[in-house]
Write a structure and sequence with these properties.
The chain folds into two domains: about 35 residues, no CATH class; about 180 residues, Rossmann fold. Helices cover about 35% and strands about 25% of the residues. The protein is built from eight helices and ten strands. It starts with a helix and ends with a helix.
Length: about 220
């Protein structure tokens, strides 16, 4: 057995920022976790509504590589406790914004699997803010491989509303990473383009110049 696999069996991993061992639920070592908690909430406006996010993910930088590794750890570990921690950090950073309440509905970004990172994140945000959790949007299966699609087809998302959304003052669509905004736009259209629609994400991944040109 490889040495790093032996370490994982006893609960030791490498911090994505400094390569020290960690055992924290956050997936950081203790020192880097204390630094991560100082993240502030950022915002911008997308076509379908306001976006709030915690991590600014720039391309082709050392910081960008750290965020890339961290997001991969979150996805592949499928650890709900890590998303519980991130929900706490996100809501603490949002303390200067209007607080969600029982009239706020959190809708996770749909996936091909029943529960994934966006599901865990939205569920934790709803639970710790007193809002409602409503996994109401389903991703339709697509048999065409991504490599066979042109740039316009890659931006399109096929969603279907599978259950009614509870009455709400605010609908918050939750995803782990937002880049082009195509997923949130498709969900917004699927839900009937409500005017009280917001997007909350752990990270906003800025596109490189080549990636932007590919979308034009």
């Amino acid at each position: 057995m490889l040495p790093w696999r032996k370490l994982r069996r006893v609960g030791l991993h490498f911090c994505p920022n400094c390569d020290h061992f960690w055992t924290e639920e956050s997936l950081w070592c203790q020192v880097c976790e204390n630094m991560f908690r100082k993240q502030t909430l950022k915002s911008q406006t997308l076509e379908c509504g306001p976006l709030k996010y915690l991590i600014d993910w720039p391309p082709h930088t050392r910081l960008g590589r750290t965020w890339s590794l961290y997001l991969r750890l979150l996805k592949y570990n499928r650890n709900p406790r890590a998303w519980e921690y991130l929900a706490h950090v996100f809501l603490a950073a949002a303390s200067d914004h209007p607080e969600p309440d029982e009239s706020t509905v959190f809708i996770p970004a749909p996936s091909h699997v029943l529960r994934d990172h966006a599901y865990y994140f939205a569920e934790a945000l709803a639970r710790h803010s007193g809002g409602q959790f409503a996994p109401s949007v389903f991703r339709l299966l697509d048999s065409n491989p991504q490599k066979e699609k042109n740039s316009r087809q890659r931006k399109e998302r096929a969603f279907e509303q599978i259950r009614a959304v509870p009455a709400a003052n605010t609908l918050i669509f939750v995803d782990d990473v937002v880049s082009t905004g195509s997923t949130s736009k498709a969900a917004h259209q699927c839900l009937g383009q409500p005017s009280n629609f917001q997007i909350w994400a752990l990270a906003h991944r800025r596109l490189s110049c080549d990636a932007v040109r590919a979308l034009i």
